[in-house]
Amino acid sequence: MTRQEPAADLSRLARELAFSGDLADEHVRWALYNQALGRGLHDLVAAAVAEDDDQVMASGVVVAALERVPSVDRARWVALTSDWTVADFVARRAAELEILESVSGVVPVSDEGLRRAADGLDVDGWSDWLQLRAASSARRAEVLDALAASGRTRRIRHVAATTRGRGAGAGAGGEG
To answer: What counts of helices (H) and strands (E) characterise the chain?
Structure first.
């Protein structure tokens, strides 16, 4: 990136955090974005990322933000990338986070919702990232059982079985 002056929203973000460094360097900008996300300055980060010329680096920031912002705000972050080559990946990651939150108990799901999810549980269609994250954090026995039996990799199967063995799925959605 060869910019003479940082874009307005990026400069504003740097001022807000009293951040110094060469903002033309993507590593420096990444550190700034990461620090700002950690402080909950999501709106400022979104504005700065939207005008960032380095879409590869900016898309990494968006993916990181997806895990830090409330689920109701994710659509806005996905929309930032709608014209970028990574738009499909970003949208998929947002959807995966919704699944992960539902199986790990972050988002409450009704008993009826659990039954419907269990009936249609298709971990084969999940990415390796989602399978591994769910294997270590799921609280639903049927999810852990499915991953322990048919997770894509040996590591995923082992983590799911270990998590299940620690009792993480007991009483959360029934025994599968």
So the answer is: 10, 0
